[in-house]
Structure formats: structure tokens, C-alpha cells
């Protein structure tokens, strides 16, 4: 029982993010297992920055051949030609060190398959011309030679030159002098667990794995498991256990994993509080006067869950009961872009990628903003990105290509939107139509070029063109612009007798997905979720407001690999820098929210909004 308790305590400590590793692992912590089986032996691992490269050898006709089995031996494929000579060239080219980066280390692990005495004798001869390169006993920057496989008994280590080191075993007892010749301790992971690299080992197996690593560390030796699964999840678990070398047959993938580690993990030490809705009118079939549509651009389930974990197991949107799923495919492709995805919600039908507020036939469609305006319902469009970019543009513009920023800006002249807020001043202030701003003023728009200026307004049509610096990422100091702009827009529009529609976009969740940057994604999602809180609070106070939260598509193919809600820590992996076809969630709160349950095409959101507002029972103005 005591052992079980100790084991449980160990697992609890391990999986909240503690690690017994002697140092953080990096690219140079990789061990290229059976390196000679790579399509390009040595060079693949070397250019990936591996700190350990392994070659199996056999002695034949006075030469050391690199092969896993005698049947694989081929003429000219020797240790000297394939590894020693090229490594010596790199070493000298780099100013007498293994890598150009002075912190890079390198060991060549020579795995002897049989006849260690004869093999070692030949190896010593092969190394005679490269004493400066491989003599780590005299030069700490030299490439270390480590013997593995069929090795001498520890008592015979002293019979070999001191530049020869050995791969030790945890079950072997070494004297103090013998231990000095041991470069690392290694063992087959299957001796401790049947774990297949998925999830994590059982609690008893975790304890075994940790114990054998800790024993090596107590001897001041690095530890390596062989026969491990070769996957990011395995690498994460081994690092958290404290392993010093990571076995891999995929040096380049391990390199990518480590190089982008700072972009693939995020820890939020302090959670922000979330709002618990009142649910008084949630789901009731009663008249809806106002609709707040919040679009988290690029926000899929993985992004939401990453934000949930990073906020210590809570989000405002996770307190919403009515949830559905939106299918995001475009009319002309399985994967949508923001133009087609946003247009589907804005005009009520699927269209082609890059199209802004037009059907697949390139003809203009009446969008949600203008449809509602016919009934006296006023609208606001808010984004923390470029206001002429696809998602906000589809609610006021009609163009055949999302790149037509100048034309999109000019389309505001024919839109009935009341408030438009976002960045990209240039497309308006330096538009192809030099008279655009005067024309917009004639349409009743008042220009503000700062959020602070907008917050002083209380009535009238508003065009808020922010400098690009105002919509910089949250992680770079943007602040609560989205939430504050929504709150003020609601204040301005809520006085309208016929009601309002507001679309607010968390634009940069998508930016983070395209950049494969998890901290970027999560910080933007948290900013978006705080905006959700403001919408929910308003809905509770108002009683006639429906809040709909969704995305135009998922971006990045995000997969979550490791998490601790207790510490607010999340790590993940992206499969693409593009959008994916995966369904996105639809959260709905307030009267009529039950209408948004189920699975449906994204263009149905348009029709559902019109249905809950009950336009059939309203008179056109």
C-alpha cells in the first residue's frame, strides 16, 4: 500500500509539469539511432544537429563495415569513409569543434555487433590519423567515441586508450575508476514498460522509469532509453521523466520539434475569472431583439480546449449549454478560406473561396447587415484586425476577390452598417477614390482614428480606423480592445427601438494558427473569451439578446499533446499552416439558442439568426 501511495504521489508530481531532467533538452539532445539506415547517413543527423550518432559495425577483411547484419555489408561502406573522414572534415572546418555553434557537442556511438577485441583494435588504428578530432580526454570539444553493443567487461576498460568511452548499463556495478570511462547509461525501455508511446505509462511503470534514470543521474551520467516509440508525445514524456538523450530515427522531425518548442507550448500561471451566466431565458422560445455574433477566426475545438486548459480548466464560452457544429466547406473546395466561410454566414449561401459577399455566380447577395436594416435593426462590425480583411468585409462589401482592399473599403458607401471598427487606415484614407472619405461623411459616418475617440461617441454612424499598432497581437500589448469596443458598441446600439446586430471578430486566433504559434493562439483566444464574457453579461441584463459564438474555419490542424490545467500549461503540434476542413463549434446563449444545436452547414447560421429574430412578423421600414 505504501508503494502504491508513493507511486501515486510521483505521478501527481510528474504530470503537473515537474521534471527530474538535469537540463532542458534541445536539438543537440537527439541520438540518431541506426544512423546508417538514413537515406543520407551522417549528413541527415549532422545537419539536424544531433548530439549523438550511432553506427553498427562488423570487422571484415581488415576494415570496419557499417551494417546491422553481415548480409548488409557493402563494398566501400566503412566506418572510416562514412563517418570518421567526414566528421574530421566538419570538425576542422568549424575551428576544431563538432558544430559551428560552440555549444554543440557530438558523440559517435560505435555499436559493435561481435568480436569487440578485434573491432576495437581496428578502430584504434582507424583513429590514429584523427587524434585531435576524437580525443575527448584531451579536448572537451572533441567528438567523443563511445563503444556500445559487444563491449569489454568493465575491469578491462583500462586496457584501452582513454579517448575510448563506453555505453554503460544500469544493472552493471562499476568502480569509481570504471565509471569514469562510462559516457552514458542506456537500456531497453521494454525492460520497464510495455508502453507504446501513446498517452503515458502506468503509474507503476512511471516509477520504474524514473528510478532507473535517477540512478544514472546519481552516478552523474546521462541516460538513454532505446526501443522507444518515435513521436512527439514520447519525446515529451521522456523529457519529463528526465531522460538526457532522445532516441530517434527521425532527426529532422526531432529538430523541428525542438526548434519550435517555444511556439508549441504555453503556460498561463494565473487564471482570469470567468462569468457564470444566469440562464434565465436561455433556450426559451421567446422573441429575440438583438443578436451578438462573435467569430473566433480560425478557432476550432483544439484551440478552444487549449485556451480552457491554459486558463486552468475554465472559459466563459465553456459555460454555455447550447452547442452545435458548423460544417465549413466552401462551394468550390473542401477547405474554406475566411472569405467563403464568412460569406456563408453573412449572405446565407455557400460561395467560392476568395469571394466577398457574392454568390458562386459572382453576383451580389444581400448580406445580414443590409437585410436587418430593412427592418430598422442597426448593425456594428468590429475586428481586431484589418477591417477590409475577409471576415469583417463580407458583412458590408461585395467583391470577387478578398485582395481588393480598396474596392472593399469603397463598398462601405452602399452598406447600411452603423459602426465599423478595425485597422488598415490606408485602404480608406488613401483609397483609389480620393473622395471616398468625403462621400462617407456625406453618408453620416464620423471618422475616429483611435479607440479612445470612439468611446466618447454616443450616437450616429461611426467609422473607426485604427492604426495598425492598435491591433498588434495581445502578446505584444494590444490590451482589451475587442471587449471594450464591443461594450461601447452595445451601449450605442442598444437604444435602437428595433434592436441591433453586432459581429465582433477575434481575428488573430487565425494569425497564430497560420504562424503555428500556440502562445499566439491561446493569448488571442483568451482575449476573445473575455469578449464572450461581456456579451453574456449584456445578454443577461437585457433579456432579449441572443449570443452566438463560432468560427469561420479551423486553422493549423492543431493537435494537443500535453496539458496541465493545474499549472495552466499546454503543448501541441500543428499539421499545417493552412485552414482545415474540420467542423467548428457553435455556442449559443439566450432566447432562441436551442435553434443552434445539431450539425449543419455554415450558411445555415444566417437563416437561423433571421428565424429567431422573427423577420416574418416584422414590418419593413
UniProtKB/TrEMBL annotation:
Cofactor note text: Binds 1 Mg(2+) ion.
GO BP term (any one): lipid metabolic process
Gene3D superfamilies for the chain: Alkaline Phosphatase, subunit A, Phosphatidylinositol (PI) phosphodiesterase
InterPro entries cross-referenced by the UniProt entry: AIM6_PI-PLC-like_dom, Alkaline_phosphatase, Alkaline_phosphatase_core_sf, PLC-like_Pdiesterase_TIM-brl
Catalytic residue list: 338
Keyword annotations of the record: Magnesium, Metal-binding, Phosphoprotein, Zinc
Family matches, as SUPFAM superfamilies: Alkaline phosphatase-like, PLC-like phosphodiesterases
Reported cofactor(s): Mg(2+); Zn(2+)
One Pfam family linked to the record: Alk_phosphatase
Positions contributing to Zn(2+) binding: 297, 391, 510, 514, 552-553
Binding site for Mg(2+): 297, 389, 505
UniProt GO MF annotations: alkaline phosphatase activity; metal ion binding; phosphoric diester hydrolase activity
Family membership noted in the UniProt record: Belongs to the alkaline phosphatase family.
Protein name in UniProt: Alkaline phosphatase
Source organism: Pedobacter steynii
